[in-house]
Amino acid sequence: QLQLVESGGGLVQPGGSLRLSCAASGFTLDYYAIGWFRQAPGKEREGVSCIANSGGSTKYADSVKGRFTISRDNAKNTVYLQMNNLKPEDTGVYYCAADHIRICVSRRSWDYWGQGTQVTVSS
Known about the structure:
Blueprint: E1 3-7, E2 10-12, E3 18-25, E4 33-39, E5 46-51, E6 58-60, E7 68-73, E8 78-83, E9 92-99, E10 112-113, E11 117-121
C-alpha cells in the first residue's frame, strides 16, 4: 500500500519549535518532489514549502521564510519540516504530498497525500 504518514504535530507555545516528519511506505521518495501544506479552520489549504527530489532546491511561502526549514533524508525515506519561532497563525493541520514532477513548480495536483498532523500554537 502506497502511503505518506505525517507525525510530529502537537501543542506548542508561541516562539516554540516542532519538527514534522513525512514518511513514505510502499514507494521510495527519491523520485518525488515533496510539498508541505497546511489548512487552518475555515481557511483554504495553502502551500508551505517544497523540496525537489534531489534536495538541492527548496521553496517557502513568504509567511514562513526564515522560520521553517524543509529537508529530506532519502536513505530514511523521510522528509522533515523544522518549524521554529512558531506563531498562532501557524496553527492548522499540516499535510505532506509527493509528486512525480521532481522539481518545485506550480502543478495542478499531487500524486500522494498524507492524512495530516495537527499543529496548535497557543499560550
